[in-house]
């Protein structure tokens, strides 16, 4: 059996006295799409950021492509070249054109020449459906287009895995669909993906597995049909009922404000 593309072992992360991750064990296979869901403060984004060491774990190990990211002697820059990361915010350089946003990291990090970097940039802009925006500047693009450029920029580096941290949460609802369509395409192409998301339809239709986190631990890990469609744990059912029924969430918030309800 081949080694997992992403492997997390007994991972802990604390910020001062606040233990955000409490012993996470997780494996993601090559070409697998895993969506991580859960309430705010459950540790989802911290877990994602520990995978490429944007956050340094307090204890535990992380492996990507068989290399231990948490080894003190690891060449973290070399490891990060294999990992594409897409954040909530787009983080594009406003003074650079779309093509320049894609070519600059390739030339500086990978040492590609200008022509090769431009060719790879054009390929990946086409992949996200934005070839016509190659010479545009970020300010002239919609939020959804900027996020698709950010995805293309990550893909231009040739990653083995892609990490997405709530990639649609900063977008207007009508712009979400185009970004999710690009992510669906990546999944169909066999990209290994770890996606922190609140988009339940995407998780249900695209993910191979769904992981539900709460309180810094993994509560459930299984198929979308199991975790979203027929959750075993009350914590999962409570979260999904609030997410899928905003009216219920408002009622519960009002009840909890009177001292009688469960806090999220």
From TrEMBL:
<keyword id="KW-1003">Cell membrane</keyword>
<dbReference type="GO" id="GO:0005524">
    <property type="term" value="F:ATP binding"/>
</dbReference>
<comment type="similarity">
    <text>Belongs to the ABC transporter superfamily.</text>
</comment>
<dbReference type="InterPro" id="IPR017871">
    <property type="entry name" value="ABC_transporter-like_CS"/>
</dbReference>
<dbReference type="InterPro" id="IPR003439">
    <property type="entry name" value="ABC_transporter-like_ATP-bd"/>
</dbReference>
<keyword id="KW-0472">Membrane</keyword>
<dbReference type="InterPro" id="IPR050086">
    <property type="entry name" value="MetN_ABC_transporter-like"/>
</dbReference>
<dbReference type="Pfam" id="PF00005">
    <property type="entry name" value="ABC_tran"/>
</dbReference>
<dbReference type="InterPro" id="IPR027417">
    <property type="entry name" value="P-loop_NTPase"/>
</dbReference>
<keyword id="KW-0547">Nucleotide-binding</keyword>
<dbReference type="InterPro" id="IPR003593">
    <property type="entry name" value="AAA+_ATPase"/>
</dbReference>
<feature type="domain" description="ABC transporter">
    <location>
        <begin position="6"/>
        <end position="240"/>
    </location>
</feature>
<keyword id="KW-0067">ATP-binding</keyword>
<keyword id="KW-0813">Transport</keyword>
<protein>
    <submittedName>
        <fullName>Amino acid ABC transporter ATP-binding protein</fullName>
    </submittedName>
</protein>
<keyword id="KW-0029">Amino-acid transport</keyword>
<dbReference type="InterPro" id="IPR030679">
    <property type="entry name" value="ABC_ATPase_HisP-typ"/>
</dbReference>
């Amino acid at each position: 059996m081949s080694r997992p593309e992403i492997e997390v072992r007994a991972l802990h992360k604390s910020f001062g006295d606040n233990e955000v991750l409490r012993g996470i064990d997780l494996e993601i296979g090559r070409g697998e799409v895993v969506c991580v869901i859960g309430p705010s403060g459950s540790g989802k984004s911290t877990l994602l950021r520990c995978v490429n060491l944007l956050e340094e774990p307090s204890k535990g190990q992380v492996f990507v492509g068989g290399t231990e990211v948490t080894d003190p002697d690891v060449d973290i820059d070399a490891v990060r070249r294999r990992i594409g990361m897409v954040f909530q915010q787009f983080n594009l350089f406003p003074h650079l054109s779309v093509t320049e946003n894609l070519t600059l990291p390739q030339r500086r990090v990978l040492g590609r020449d200008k022509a090769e970097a431009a060719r790879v940039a054009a390929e990946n802009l086409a992949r996200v459906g934005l070839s016509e925006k190659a010479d545009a500047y970020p300010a002239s693009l919609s939020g959804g287009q900027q996020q698709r450029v950010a995805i293309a920029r990550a893909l231009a580096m040739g990653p083995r895995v892609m990490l997405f941290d709530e990639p649609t949460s900063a977008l207007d609802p009508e712009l979400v669909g185009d970004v999710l369509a690009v992510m669906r395409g990546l999944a169909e192409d066999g990209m290994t993906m770890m996606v922190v998301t609140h988009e339940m339809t995407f998780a249900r239709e695209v993910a191979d597995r769904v992981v539900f986190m709460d309180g810094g631990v993994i509560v459930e890990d299984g198929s979308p049909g199991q975790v979203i469609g027929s959750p075993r744990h009350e914590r999962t059912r409570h979260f999904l009922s609030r997410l899928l029924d905003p009216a219920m969430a408002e009622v519960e918030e009002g009840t909890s404000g009177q001292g009688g309800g469960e806090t999220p």
